[in-house]
Amino acid sequence: VQLQASGGGLVQAGGSLRLSCAASRIIFSASPLAWYRQTPGKQREWVASITVGGSENYAGSVKGRFTISRDNAKNTVDLQMNSLKPEDTAVYYCKVIVGSYWGQGTQVTVSS
User: Fold this and answer.
1) Per residue in 68-105, pLDDT tens?
2) CB atoms within 10 A of CB 51
3) Which residues of 72-97 are buried (b: 16+ CB within 10 A; e: fewer)?
4) 108: which strand partners?
5) What Å distances lie between residue 42 and 24, 26, 38, 49, 66, CA to CA?
6) Strand pairing partners for 11?
7) DSSP character string of 17-55
8) How far apart are CA 49 and CA 58, in angstroms?
9) Which of 24, 33, 46, 72 is the most buried (most CB within 10 A)?
């Protein structure tokens, strides 16, 4: 079981990044998927999730700026992040809810 996240990096405030998480040996199509983030000294917090049917939910802090999407044929889940703010700086993790599988994390840093 392996989840590979990519797309993190350094961006200026107001910029955009797209994170992607791909899985091997897991069938994405049977599970809700989610993105979380974590900053040093804080608990991992939920950012967004998408159901098997494609319904999306977002934390209040990112609603209107982030978009989660899934491609069951490719076993991928993406997070499009627009209008980024310095407080979005964190390590971002993808999660397959059924089985509770976590990706290894990708760093997002937003400079002011």
Assistant:
1) 999 988 999 999 999 999 999 999 999 999 989 999 99
2) 13
3) eeebbbbbebeebeeebbbbbbbbbe
4) 9, 90
5) 29, 29, 6, 20, 21
6) 110
7) EEEEEEEES--GGGS-EEEEEE-TTS--EEEEEE-TT--
8) 7
9) 33
